[in-house]
# Entry
Amino acid sequence: MIGVLESVIRGLGNGSVYALLALGFVIIYKATRVISFAQPALMLAGAVAVSYLTEVTGFYLAVLLAALLIAGVALGIERVAIRPMVGRPVFVVAIITLGVDVVVRVVVNGFIGRDVRQMGDPWGLHQVALGPLVVQQRWLAMLAVTAVLVTLLFLFFRHTRYGLAMRAAAFDQETALAQGVSVGAVFALSWALAGFLAAIAGMFVGTGQGVEQLTWIVALKALPAIIVGGLDSLGGAVAGGLTIGVVESLFQSYQGEFAPWLGQNFAVVTPYVVMLVVLLVRPYGLFGTREVERV
Amino acid sequence: MKVRYGVTFVAIVALLSACGVIRGDDEGSKGAVTTGVTREPCPLAVDKNKGCIYLGTISDLTQGPFAALAVPITDAQKAFWKRVNTAGGIGGKYEVDVQAYVRDNKYNPEVHRQVYNEIKDKVLGLAQTLGSPTTAAIIGDLKANNVVSAPASWTSAWEFEDVIVESGANYCVEAMNSVDYAMETYKPKTVMAVHLAGDYGADAAAGAKIAAEKNGLEFTAVETPPGATEQGRAITEITKNKPDLVILTTGPADAAAIVGQSAAAGFKGRFIGTGPTWNPALLKSPAAPALKALYEQSSPGKPFNADTPGHKAMREALTGVTPNDGYTSGWVWSYPLKAALEKMVASGDISRKGLLAAVKTLATVDYEGMLPPEAGNFSGDPNTATFRQTLVNKLDETAPTGVSTVKDFFIGPTAQAYAMDGPCYAKL
# Structure
């Protein structure tokens, strides 16, 4: 039982990272109806920025600065590559984000170089005892920081003018525009928020093990997370991310024992299996808006 | 109207002909001796009176998983051939160019085949074909056209291919020696091979299995996906089964995650990782204390700072670079090609067939001390020719690449007795 709980905590830790990334996807999707495939590159850029800044400013300030820097980069990308495409088919814009992802990664890879870059984080691989459970500190840090960020995000959407503007624009762009909401500013803000969250996620991915050029692949697990939670649901993104993390961790620990016939590395595909199962039962995700189509 | 069409047609034909499209002009064929060899000097010739032998390079130069090693390998080979050219070239008649046909395979077999097809009619052989699955995609064509190639991988499959001039023991032999070294040093009773899929990881795991059986040890194999964040299952298997010895064949970040997190969870067994599991940057990682306590690196050759004439020449040719054993490997892999090219030119049969014939006569190669000369045996049958000596390195923060040799070239009893009768990975 202790082993199961330890696996669940590991899963919640990793799942928090998927949730942060998934939130970025959903925020951009809600604002622009586009799935941004640039999130993996922004995540990697965030991690690499932390790895450089931490040597100058210390870890905590480095995280804040890197997150703001990546938010700025995301703003720039939105202004240069995405805004001119407003009104074009969303498919075209999604493909542009794929191109942006490749370009940003090539630049960031130049900064990563040949080595594994370290975050300089205080958690390392240290463990902590929670009663009978022994878990890594970084998993608890991931969970705690994600909880704080998600709470702040929900407060922002519910209680601030910009949050209200974003919700209005997500609900109906034309009406929001008619009410004086700057839809362009909403687009920009959504990209900045997604960049900020991706940078924090990237930093966490790098804790304990560092970042290398292939680390971006982790971000792809946010895709099943958003499908599981529902493409347009912020709560769903969090629930989806955590679900994916926990299921993956439990399979890593126990599939070899209880279902060896599934092969050695079934855990790698579990996010996608969960996604398929949810799609079969609820095609719009656990918390997504059910689409009503009149015929 | 018809006249106008006629004039246009003639004009187009004349234009294409002038450009050499219709006439069949080929830039590479000017003054050609044979495919990939010209009487004209190399573009970067040291001596313009010598002809040029063009060798292609297909490597993982940008976004693939081995770019961190591939770039230094490629740079070292440029420096190696520049040194050869400066020292008088091949047989005093030719210089070697490895810069005109460099292509990126992105570690993708399909891309590898595509870029190989682009350059194959312009080069005599390949100075580098990086990766086992990627080279496997072109091996049929290499054999059919006698394209002698230096690999940038150590799979045991290359022992069975005449056109591949490998240097250093293969992963299979390396893992056999690692288990035998551990038997002598740590006396384990259980061995676990944690390995990536394919003929890098599976080749080493098969070697570990063969050695474990020979030594009467209990053996388990755990295949793991690449990526530091994907190692949860491997770590669970290690901490749950507590093997006395773990043979690792992964990338460096994966290795650090496995060793660091297993140790954090209380694991106290030994790890021996194959050459590519190490990267000097790991000394700065949170896993460093665990790596120092539990990890050693097996290797097919001595590290960057070793005291041999070859190593010294390499360091002199590559002044100013950050030490990395990618440079060492790239440099070592070039010696057999140099020896074969010299034999080919001396024989007078300057052709792909002539080069392959020269390779088949090589019983030893002068590696300037970087490897024993018998590592360059390409004349015998695979079982006789397979080079079986490897080293074990320990972590050493004072060494430029973070490791120094703890056990010099040796052959363990398993590798000594093993009959190399096919690629090892097929036996896992």
In short: The two ends of chain B are 74 Å apart (CA to CA).
